[in-house]
Design brief:
This is Amino acid ABC transporter ATP-binding protein. By secondary structure, the protein is α/β, with parallel strands linked by helices. Helices cover about 35% and strands about 25% of the residues.
């Protein structure tokens, strides 16, 4: 069994993806992805719906099993048949489009259930860490409320706090603002920005080009299961080199523009 060390003082996790393929029957979603995320780096994945971005993220956390290829996280091979997935996932936090909070539990209980069950923390230790993370996202005063009593943006901030209670070395974000009202998007992005500035390694699927330009070290544009273009965020977003990237960004950055030749 390959173990993932739980040394909190070691360097943040990096990610290496080599020749990754994933198919669902005849539908090949990932077609040989090669990618690196250095420790402490923020990489944003952009591209049209169905380009494979979310599937790639789920493969990194082994929520999906690749058909071929290799993934290493923090130097440990996530795709090895004998990998200890539970140990590996303790060091990877993931935030989804939907908040996935337990509706019958308070915010505090939502944030303590995994540390208590997985890390075997005492109630007091888990609650202390949960309150620290809820304070980090500005919601400590709502610790005893249930999800239905919070806005969507507040619930997503709790979901981030819940992931942080495990002290992950790597954070995966799968379009975390896509289900939010426009007024609440900024609060969630601000927390992600703070995490990036604190040196958290992050792989982010997003349609928020302003966030990607400002926060990401690199942007990777995917189309139909392949990496089409990647580079420094400002360069890819402002001066894309590939025609498909240019077309995508033109449509995203100028959504009211109508090209009569299309």
């Amino acid at each position: 069994m390959i173990e993932t060390p739980q040394n909190p003082d070691r360097a943040p996790a990096g990610v290496v993806i080599d020749g990754l393929h994933k198919a669902y029957g005849e539908n090949e979603v990932l077609k040989g992805i090669d990618m690196r995320v250095e420790p402490g780096e923020v990489v944003c994945l952009i591209g049209a719906s169905g380009s494979g971005k979310s599937t790639l993220l789920r493969c990194v956390n082994r929520l999906e099993d690749p058909n071929r290829g290799m993934i290493t996280v923090g130097g440990h091979e996530a795709t090895h048949p004998d990998v200890n997935l539970d140990a590996m996932r303790r060091e990877i936090g993931m935030v989804f489009q939907q908040f996935n909070l337990f509706p019958h539990l308070s915010m505090l209980e939502n944030c303590t259930i995994t540390p208590r069950r997985v890390l075997k923390q005492s109630r007091s230790a888990a609650e202390q860490e949960a309150m620290a993370q809820l304070k980090r996202v500005g919601l400590e005063e709502f610790a005893q409320r249930r999800p239905e009593q919070l806005s969507g943006g507040q619930q997503q901030r709790v979901a981030i706090a819940r992931a942080l209670t495990m002290r992950p070395k790597l954070m995966l974000f799968d379009e975390p603002t896509s289900a939010l009202d426009p007024e609440t998007v900024g609060d969630v992005l601000a927390i992600m920005r703070d995490l990036a500035q604190g040196g958290m390694t992050m792989l982010v699927v997003t349609h928020e080009m302003g966030f990607a330009r400002e926060v990401a070290d690199r942007v990777v544009f995917m189309d139909r299961g392949r990496v089409v273009e990647e580079g420094p965020a400002a360069q890819v977003i402002s001066e894309p080199q590939q025609p498909r990237t240019q077309d995508f960004l033109r449509r995203v950055l100028n959504p009211t523009h109508v090209d009569l030749e299309d």
